[in-house]
Design goal:
The protein has one domain. The protein starts with 8 loop residues before the first helix and ends in a 10-residue tail after the last helix. The chain is elongated and about 55 Å long. It has two helices and no strands. By secondary structure, the protein is an all-alpha fold. Pfam families: Cytochrome_B. InterPro entries: Cyt_b/b6_N, Cytb/b6-like_sf, Di-haem_cyt_TM. It is found in: Mitochondrion inner membrane. Keywords: Electron transport, Heme, Iron, Membrane, Metal-binding, Mitochondrion, Mitochondrion inner membrane, Respiratory chain, Transmembrane, Transmembrane helix, Transport, Ubiquinone.
């Protein structure tokens, strides 16, 4: 369904969202799943900085 050619990429994404069964939810889950991954990554790093877990020498062995 998807073509990566620069002239037809937008129309193929539109086709997936409109004509493919549940294509809109696949696109929605893909976009929000990628954002959720980075949110979880930043929260994990932030938690490590907040609790100072980088100071434990056993962590780096």
């Amino acid at each position: 369904h998807y073509t990566s050619d620069t002239t037809t990429a937008f129309s193929s994404v539109t086709h997936i969202c409109r004509d493919v069964n549940y294509g809109w939810i696949i696109r929605y889950m893909h976009a929000n799943g990628a954002s959720m991954f980075f949110i979880c990554l930043y929260m994990h790093v932030g938690r490590g900085l907040y609790y100072g877990s980088y100071t434990f020498l056993e962590t780096w062995n």
